[in-house]
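> @MW can you paste both from yesterday?
MW: sure, first one:
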Amino acid sequence: MEKCDSKYCSCLQFSANALSRVMTKISDEEFAITGMSSSYAFLLMTVNEKPGVQPKEISQQMMLTPSTVTRLIEKMEYRGFLERKHVGRTTEVYPTPKSLDLHPKIQEAWRNLYARYAELLGKENADKLTADIYEAARTLE
């Protein structure tokens, strides 16, 4: 392991946030082709691939709180990418043609993001780091 430049580098919270900031910057650069942040793009991808999905499932898929998902959906609904339909006591979320048209660009950005960090970290390291971080997040949740 390389010498640590910060007295906080042995802290998981500090290191995870540092990684998050770097990944957010890279992600924003790659998802710029979609005209939105990765959070909105992942939301659209989720709905595009499962029209009629309920917000609770989106929340679980994206590991976000229900209130955050509601806010993201409202913003994308306002921008004309999604529409909500109330079916009995549940809400279903559907893509609009505008969202479906953007889907190939979203997938391209996602592929580009992976290619970029896999090149920097090495594919094997990138895949292992991703799996380890996801498992840690699930365990700590």
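MW: second:
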Amino acid sequence: MKDLVNLLIEKKKTISTMESCTGGGVSNAITNIEGASEILKYSAVTYSNEYKIKMGVSSEVIDKYSVYSEECSIEMSKNISSFAGSDFGVGITGKLNRVDVNNPYGEDNVVFISIYDRNNDRFYNDKVEATLGSRKENKELVINRIIDMMKDILK
């Protein structure tokens, strides 16, 4: 994460996150690095559908594709970038080692990541198979994938 934060600082780019299953893990990892205040504009943990919708995710997208979908992560990434005015928005949603009785649809143990590049109006999407033993290990897996994606985007 240190390399990514420094790269964002060097390129004078900012980032915001809307996280669900990672519970703020990405923003926590960013803020563990000195200089993070130069690049992190805003972070929201939207664990519930209600707060995803309040932050701009379309209820129609959730109803049609499920809260656990690439389409939902895309809306999360774009809306958080727009809300915060950041160069990049990161949206993360998925299931980590549990069934969600409030959202029975969507793949189990899959996390959807979307990074929105506001300046180029472009999305970078991926999904991670979250099949490691613990929630903590799966969160780290997702965070590391986001770091790799961001470094590739910023090259």
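> thanks! Helices lie at 2-10, 25-31, 49-54, 59-65, 70-84, 135-154.
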